[in-house]
Amino acid sequence: MTDQIWTRQKGERSKAFHLFCIYRDLGPTRSIEKVRLKFGESKGESISSTQLEKYSSNNNWVERSEAYDDYVDERQREKNINAIENMNERQAEDAVLIQKEALDDLQDATEDERSMASLESRKNAAARTWKIGVDAERLARGVATEKVEQSGTIKQRHSGSIDTANSLMKDPKYIQAKRKAMDEYYASSKGKE
After folding, report:
1. What residue spans define the domains of the chain?
2. Where does the pLDDT of residue 1 fall: very low under 50, low under 70, confident under 90, or very high at 90 and above?
3. CA atoms within 13 A on the CB side of 17
4. Around Cβ 144, how many Cβ atoms within 10 Å?
5. Chain centre to alpha carbon of residue 74
6. Neighbours of 145 (CB within 10 A)
7. Taking a C-beta distance cutoff of 8 angstroms, is the pair 184, 94 a contact?
8. Which segments show compositional bias classed as Polar residues (predicted)?
9. What is the pLDDT of residues 148-191, one digit of tens each?
C-alpha cells in the first residue's frame, strides 16, 4: 500500500488524531460542526469550532479523509468484483449441470420406447432445459446468447444482460431444472463421503 495519510502522522498528538478519526469516520457528510458535537457527546467536553478548524488545517483533514474515502471505495469495489466473479462462476457451473442433466434426459427419452407422445414431450422438455442451461452458462460467463443483425439507424435503451439473466433465473422451467440438477448433484456427492 502506498502512503496511507489517513493513519496517524508523525508528530500528531493523540487528541488531534482522535479528533481527525471522528472527522474521517463521519463519511462524505462530515463537517467540523459534526465533529464538535460528536466529541462533546463522547467525552463530555466541549471544543470550539475555531480550535477544530485549526486542527483540520494543520493536519490536512480534508485531504486525508478524501484519501481514506478513496481507499474504502477501492476496497469495496474489489470486494464487489470478486463477489460477482464468484457468482458468475457458480452460476456457470450450475448451468453446466443443467445441460448435462438435460442431455441425459434426452438420451433416456430417445432410448425409451414407451409411447410416442411421452417420448416427444420428454425430448422437447430435455431440449428446452438444455437450451436454458446453455443460455444461463453463456450469460454467467459474459457471452451473448443470441446473434442479432440489424441494419439502419436504431436508437435503443438497453439495461444489459443482467435483466436478461434475471428473467432467465425467474423462468419456472429453469428453476425446476436447476433444482433437479442440484438435488441429484447433492445426492451423488453424499454417496462419495
Report:
1. 14-59, 85-143+161-191
2. very low
3. 10
4. 11
5. 14
6. 15
7. no
8. 150-167
9. 665 666 565 655 555 555 566 677 777 777 777 777 766 666 65
For residue 132, give the C-alpha cell: 436454458
Please give the residue that has the higher pLDDT: either 179 or 14: 14
All three cell numbers of 1, joined, read: 500500500
**151-184 burial: b if 16+ Cβ within 10 Å, else e:** eeeeeeeeeebeebbeebeeeeebeebbebbeee
Instruction: Give, to the nearest 10 degrees, the angle between helix 61-111 and helix 14-25.
Output: 40
> Quick one: cell of 119?
417420448
Which set of grid coordinates corresponds to residue 84? 460477482
11: number of CA atoms within 13 Å, CB side?
3
Listed ranges 30-44, 55-69, 120-134; the one with the highest mean pLDDT: 55-69
Q: Which residue type is seen at 118?
A: S
* pLDDT tens-place string over residues 21-60: 999 999 999 999 999 999 988 777 889 999 999 999 999 9
- For 82-115, the DSSP string reads HHHHHHHHHHHHHHHHHHHHHHHHHHHHHH--S-
Cα angle 145-150-153, degrees, rounded to a multiple of 5? 135
